[in-house]
Write a structure and sequence with these properties.
The protein is α/β, with parallel strands linked by helices. The protein folds into 2 domains: about 70 residues, Helix Hairpins (Orthogonal Bundle); about 80 residues, Chitinase A, domain 3, CATH 3.10.50. The strands form 2 sheets. A 5-stranded mixed sheet has the order 5-4-3-7-6. The chain has a two-stranded parallel ribbon with strand order 1-2. Helix 1 runs antiparallel to helix 2. The two termini are about 30 Å apart. This is Transcription elongation factor GreA. One of its GO terms (biological process) is DNA-templated transcription elongation. One of its GO terms (molecular function) is RNA polymerase binding. It holds the Pfam family GreA_GreB.
Length: about 160
Amino acid sequence: MVEKVPMTPVGLKNLEDELRQLKNFERRAVIRAIAEAREHGDLSENAEYTAARERQSFIEGRITELEDIIGRAQVIDASQLSGDTIRFGATVTLADEDNDEESVYQIVGLHEADIKSGRLSIHSPLARALIGKSVGDSVEVSTPGGSKSYEIVALRFC
């Protein structure tokens, strides 16, 4: 059975855009770079050729990876969800119980997670602790710096 990869519509669009960029521009550019490097002669001592071949290998690997992920994507549109419990797609406001500092995270798929942008992977310890909880609940999460406790202040699906 093929394992589905949950993601938001925005996450899928970003992966599709990256795939298009790699196929339509990056792949062509690296083929040109390889051709130019070949014209410089002895390939065994040609750093440009070696670098272009390594870049080509990376691009082809990433294309294969993206095609696999997109093919297994299970798109979940959070704007169509509602309820009182946290699940995939939810945007959650948390208050650190030590200093009352608030943070806002949307729970998203692994391939669209970006903690700096407030997108928390469904597979992260914090997201796993939040799933199934409601506003007013507290969660405790083990972090590399020790245990942290958060209170769930708000929940929305958007």
